[in-house]
Amino acid sequence: MPPHPSRAREPILNLPAVISLCLLALIGIHAARLLLPDESDFMLIIDWSVIPARWSTAFGSVQVEDVMRSLREGVPEDTVTPLMALAQYVLQSGEGRPWTALSYAFLHGSWAHVLINSVWLAAFGTPIVRRCGAGRFFILSGASAIAGAVLYAVMNPLQVLPMIGASGAVSGLMAAASWFMFAPASWHWEGRLTQPHERPRETLGHMVRNRQVLIFLGIWFAANYVFAFVEPLGMTDASIAWEAHLGGFLAGLILFPLIDPLPARAKRISA
Questions:
Q1: Does domain 17-259 have CATH number 1.20.1540.10?
Q2: If the chain, 271 residues long, is cut into consecutive pieces of 10 residues, what is the mean pLDDT of each piece?
Q3: SS3 category, 141
Q4: Domain spans of the chain, in order of start
Q5: Whether the model pTM is above 0.90
């Protein structure tokens, strides 16, 4: 018997397989797009991103002329012509492309954009998968992405610029995790303290009295305000919108109690 038995090496990133696959998909898609000619990549973005004016004219009461009029009235003269050309191209077929409510989440504007979303996906998607399983994780992520796209389109019905990114889905995962990540620890039947994903979720009353939850939500809303309206150091991407973040966040906050396999905490446990 050797004097120093070898120990099994712990992985540097102990991520669930489904999270690793999602990260590979997001990063791989962005890397593959870099190999495309500019025209092909432009077409891919136009075909698979959320463009609110496309939905408004296909499924709502908005007319193409309404979109054109808004461009003539609300856009600087030096950008009117390119935007009107884009609007004509996007709206000429009259197709709504409803699947873009999901497909936009797989596209990103830059390496910084996709890597930031990947970090947050790993951070908040991991406890959701460990708690709920892969199926409910995909339901929650998909519903949050759709909610983000819908709220963005409702609040910007005449917008012809594409909106892309997984931020809506990630925001939904963050909201879902806030139900249990800051819950008080208790003793597991194995004789150890419970991990955050093993704890009963907070009730709404407990959440609004939990300082850690309030600080977390305050930071989240403040960060969205800064990146949406202040745009520090040019770090924001033109195709990202706070409306999509908010829509995804609200979806995750509302939907999680309906799919959570663990019960809510009955009462506050005294420290």
A1: yes
A2: 47 81 97 95 94 93 88 71 85 90 94 92 95 96 97 94 93 92 67 69 77 80 65 44 91 94 68 42
A3: helix
A4: 17-259
A5: no
